Amino acid sequence: MLFKKEKEVIKLIEKHADKVEACLISSRDALLAYLDGDIGQAKKLARQTDRIETEADLIRHQVRDKLYYGAYMPLLREDIYKLVEGMDKVANAAENCCDLFLNQRPPIPNDLAPDFVKLVEITMGIAEPLKHAVLCYLKGICPIEISRQHARDIGLIESKVDSMEWDLTKLIFTSQLDYSLKLHLRYGLDAIVRVSDRAEDAADQMELVTLKSMV
Fold first, then answer.
1. pLDDT tens readout for residues 20-71
2. Nearest residue to 76 via CA among 215, 214, 191, 212
3. Which SS3 state, helix, strand or coil, does residue 113 take?
């Protein structure tokens, strides 16, 4: 019976991971449409992002209920839920990023647009290795060390995003733009980068789960 409950949780976590990845893909497409000047398409995709994030929330609640009723050993239940919650925060960050750009509409100078595009593509692409890391471990389809390597890959992506953030921040604040616009662009930059920060937090939580399962 316990094994059956764990299998049900794993299926739900897999569905949740798929939703998180879909949320980031939708967010990426919304932001790329915005940066390309297609506000109508960007708004449509932002609404889609909101819907997918809501669906991910509902699955997270189902995981919590399954854990409450006895799936997994007590030592791991809280950490499993925190892992799912951490993944959910990645989707939340992507949704918030779309909301900021579509609600506040920061104007992106043409010479900075390619840098924003590259940053969006790399940041939102972090969902795929995160999903691989989590499912690789939970489904038992690879050794724990391979799953941990996926987690370390997420850290490398996050470090690359940080480096790009630093370079783009310098470009913004050494430009001749009005200071108010510089701050607005910085807020948008923060929102994009927060997605990779939350992904790294989730990867760290997954490492904690793997360590406890090895005890």
1. 999 999 999 999 999 999 999 999 999 999 999 999 999 999 998 888 876 6
2. 212
3. helix
Two tokens, residue 24: 């980031």
d(CA 137, CA 147): 6
- Least Cα distance to 87 among 161, 154, 179, 178 occurs for 154
pLDDT in tens, 160-177: 999 999 999 999 999 999
* Distance of alpha carbon 162 from alpha carbon 165, whole angstroms: 5
Name the CA radius of gyration of the chain, rounded: 18
How many domains is the chain partitioned into structurally? 1
Length of the chain: 215
Q: Residue 148 belongs to a domain with what CATH number?
A: 1.20.58.220
**Among candidates 78, 93, 81, 85, which has minimal Cα distance to 158?**
93
pTM of the model: 0.91
pLDDT confidence of residue 214? 60
Q: For 125-158, b where at least 16 C-beta lie within 10 A, e where not — what string?
A: ebbbbbbbbbbbbbeeeeeeeebbebbebbeebb
CA distances from 170 to 74, 106, 181 (A): 48, 18, 14
Residues with Cβ within 8 Å of residue 90, at least 6 apart in sequence? 20, 24, 126, 127, 130, 195, 198, 199, 202
Domain holding 86, by residue range, is 2-213
Inter-axis angle of helices 2-35 and 113-124, nearest 10 = 170
At 109-119, the pLDDT tens digits run: 999 999 999 99
